[in-house]
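Structure in, sequence out. Go:
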């Protein structure tokens, strides 16, 4: 019996990581292959592969949309692809190992031929997106913790004043508010640091975080009232990452090589990134960023509805894919800047595809096969906790009908939420965020979700035919 080891990992580490692992396991059982799967999700590494399991395997499958350490698999046949292929093509990936069509991984070797390097670069899918999502995946926990603590402090410990809700000085709620602010303070440096680390490995981490800290503090570049925010963090991350990666290619004497990753590369990169922000790009990026936030804050009427339509459509289009992540990251960044009215409609749109398709299976059971009815129950549960990927089984089977239905419902719900001024203090969606007190305008939040899921369910059932 063939033996395979695998790793699955997605940027958020919540759903796709485990869906890919589950589908790989099912495919391996079907093909009579023994497989051990290590998941690298938001909770960290689970089912970590042992040296014996790796050495005894006939090949390795890596389905990941974030950076994975592959040095353990040097010399092994490897199939490397995005996490979506692990969900949709598990049998094909395993069959490549069985048929001997996987190329041998030589990334752990000290020397790599130009042809191998060129092919490796070609095989990488959208590296900019991969690096960006790596930073976002590490930033999100800080946004969640900070947003929830600030929301709890204001909701429970705050008192109305002429200038808005204020937390009494010296109270326990002021301390909780301060802890939330502290969590927010780490967001941009973490974003920049892990973008840089994704590009240049560990030598990029310190310069990226330092650059991110400078980007988030306008006093460094003569703009104390206006900082470069998450745009500056992204710029700092990519600048630090690619600069560190370039310095790694320098030919240096053997005596210097041991201190290159811990001293020379971080030091030189940090100096250049800091100088670039302080003297060149910090103030312009801060101007662009503040112009963007002011424009979003001033959106009223038709323009805000148009924005909600776009965000709702993006969230539902690929249900956790790259388009979805761009809209999600935009909303998360706005939360970090104190504009929670963008994340409100996004939080509504996030849960509508799975809730809508779950409702559709309950309303018209003759249109769905047995496995789809079971998937409908799971989709309702996943939608409740804000996992858009719960609608993927339906979209994978019937994309031309399900995806438009999902988009119609998500766009409708997002518009209702935007018009009602629904806000969300954390970068997550679904009813669960309201349970934790993170939502402003709870009633309309649920009204928007219900309207959206009804639109999705009715549209899907209208487009689908009864099972023969």
């Amino acid at each position: 019996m063939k033996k395979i080891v695998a790793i699955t990992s997605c940027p958020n580490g919540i759903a796709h990581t485990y869906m890919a692992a589950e589908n790989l396991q099912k495919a391996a059982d079907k093909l009579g292959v023994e497989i051990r799967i290590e998941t690298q999700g938001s909770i960290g590494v689970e089912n970590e592969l042992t040296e014996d399991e790796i050495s005894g395997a006939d090949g390795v499958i890596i389905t990941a949309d974030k950076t994975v350490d592959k040095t353990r698999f040097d010399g092994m046949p490897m199939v490397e692809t995005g996490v979506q292929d692990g969900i949709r093509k598990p049998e094909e990936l395993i069959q490549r190992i069985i048929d001997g069509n996987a190329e041998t991984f030589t990334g752990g070797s000290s020397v790599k031929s130009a042809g191998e390097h060129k092919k490796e670069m070609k095989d990488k899918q959208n590296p900019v997106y991969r690096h960006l999502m790596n930073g976002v995946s590490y930033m999100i926990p800080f946004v969640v913790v900070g947003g929830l603590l600030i929301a709890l402090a204001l909701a429970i410990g705050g008192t109305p004043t002429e200038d808005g809700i204020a937390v009494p000085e010296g109270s326990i709620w002021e301390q909780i508010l301060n802890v939330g602010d502290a969590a927010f303070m780490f967001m941009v440096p973490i974003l920049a640091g892990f973008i840089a680390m994704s590009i240049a490995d560990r030598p990029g981490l310190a310069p990226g975080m330092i650059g991110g800290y400078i980007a988030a503090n306008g006093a460094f570049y003569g703009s104390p009232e206006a900082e470069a925010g998450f745009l500056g963090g992204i710029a700092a991350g990519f600048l630090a990452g690619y600069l560190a990666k370039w310095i790694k290619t320098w030919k240096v004497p053997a005596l210097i090589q041991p201190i290159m990753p811990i001293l020379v590369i971080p030091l030189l990169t940090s100096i250049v990134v800091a100088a670039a922000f302080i003297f060149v790009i910090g103030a312009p990026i801060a101007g662009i960023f503040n112009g963007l936030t002011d424009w979003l804050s001033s959106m009223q009427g038709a323009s805000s509805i148009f924005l909600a339509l776009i965000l709702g459509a993006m969230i539902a289009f690929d249900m956790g894919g790259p388009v979805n992540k761009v809209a999600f990251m935009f909303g998360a960044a706005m939360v970090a800047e104190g504009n929670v009215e963008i994340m409100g409609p996004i939080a509504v749109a996030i849960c509508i595809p799975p809730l809508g398709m779950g409702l559709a299976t309950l309303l018209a059971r003759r249109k769905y096969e047995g496995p789809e009815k079971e998937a409908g129950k799971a989709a309702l549960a996943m939608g409740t906790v804000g996992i858009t990927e719960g609608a993927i089984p339906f979209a994978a089977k019937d994309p031309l009908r399900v995806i438009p239905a999902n988009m119609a419902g998500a766009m409708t719900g997002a518009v209702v939420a935007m018009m009602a001024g629904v806000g969300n203090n954390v970068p997550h969606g679904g009813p669960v965020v309201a349970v934790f007190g993170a939502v402003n305008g709870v009633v309309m939040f649920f009204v928007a979700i219900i309207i959206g899921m009804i639109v999705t369910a009715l549209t899907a059932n209208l487009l689908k035919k009864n099972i023969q």
